[in-house]
Amino acid sequence: MAEADLELCLSTALKLAREAGGMIKDAFKKKKNVMLKASPIDLVTETDEAVEKFLFSELRKVFPQHRYIGEESVAAGAKVDFTDAPTWIIDPVDGTMNFVHSFPFTCVSIGLTVNKEPVIGVIYNPILDHMYHARKGHGAFLNDEKITVSGETDLSKSLVIGEMGTSPIPEKRECVFENARILVGKAHGFRSLGSCALNMCLVASGAAELYHEAGIHCWDVAAGAVVVTEAGGVVIDTAGGEFDLLSRRVLCASSPSLGQEVASLLHQYQPPRD
Ligand code: IPD
């Protein structure tokens, strides 16, 4: 894809993320109409659906030839059609559980892949007014200021993020608790905040050193993968191998050695692919 085209993709995504953020912020303090998807803790609201509809329709006006993958479209039965074509991968509200509870750690996440590689990431938390963006080869930014990972290599000095309670599957829950038990003893601190995309941004901006999770989807990580990589961090599989956007596993870290060390400690869980 030509540089000018990528520049247009980024500027369009930034503008639309801000507008989508306005929709999320407007609904944030109001009573939400909450619906269940795969389980009683897998939630969707009218805002998730409205934001995805808005983003798809606005992006399609500018990029009619591109392809689209969105959390709520897939929940409604669409296939994850992942090809080499430029593909927008969108989570309209990442951290829906937080949004439902008016816990101010929620965002819209917009990623673009070309030849199956994430090249643009825009993640906006409208409650805190934190706009993260990155474009491959051009660095990562928070509210237009350049961000970098901390570079930490020592686990005992690292703040680690691991998500808890996002699955009713007993085998996965056991794995999550076991990994928390391992890491709580070894890391400087441990957090669980409820938004995959923002967790990745925290690692990218040096506010945390590592985040890992099995069970995420491509729309949770497509944008974050660019932000972390462009901030100098590593994005790998939870077992330490190459990151695979559809494998539903992610580990991102402030340094390669920290990433590999934690990957070797983790109990592994493999959900079905996207
Ligand atoms: C969820 C959040 C959560 C993570 C889950 C995701 P959603 O996304 O990112 O932090 O633990 O795996 O599914 O459903 O709020 O868009």
Q: Any idea of the CATH topology of the largest domain?
A: Fructose-1,6-Bisphosphatase, Chain A, domain 1
Radius of gyration computed on alpha carbons: 17 Å
State the name of the first-level CATH class of the largest domain. Answer: Alpha Beta
CATH architecture of the largest domain: 2-Layer Sandwich
Q: Helical stretch count? A: 8
The largest pleated sheet is described as:
7 strands, mixed
Count of folded domains: 2
- Given helix and strand content, the structural type is alpha+beta
Q: Which small molecules are bound?
A: D-MYO-inositol-1-phosphate
Strand order of the largest sheet: 3-4-5-6-7-8-9
CATH homologous superfamily title of the largest domain: Fructose-1,6-Bisphosphatase, subunit A, domain 1
The number of strands is 14
Strand % is: 15-25%
Residue stretches low in confidence (pLDDT < 50, at least 5 long) are none
Mean pLDDT rating: 96
SSE arrangement, N to C: HEEHEHEHEEEEEEHEHEHEEH
Any overview of this molecule?
The chain is 37% helix and 24% strand. A seven-stranded mixed beta sheet has the order 3-4-5-6-7-8-9, with helices on both faces. The chain has a five-stranded mixed beta sheet with strand order 11-10-12-14-13, sandwiched between helices. 47% of the residues are buried. By secondary structure, it is an alpha+beta fold. The mean pLDDT is 96. The protein contains eight helices and 14 strands. It is globular and about 50 Å long. It folds into two domains: 3-147, Fructose-1,6-Bisphosphatase, subunit A, domain 1 (Fructose-1,6-Bisphosphatase, Chain A, domain 1, 2-Layer Sandwich); 155-265, D-Maltodextrin-Binding Protein, domain 2, CATH 3.40.190.80. The longest helix has 26 residues, at 3-28. D-MYO-inositol-1-phosphate binds next to strand 4. D-MYO-inositol-1-phosphate (IPD) binds next to strand 4.
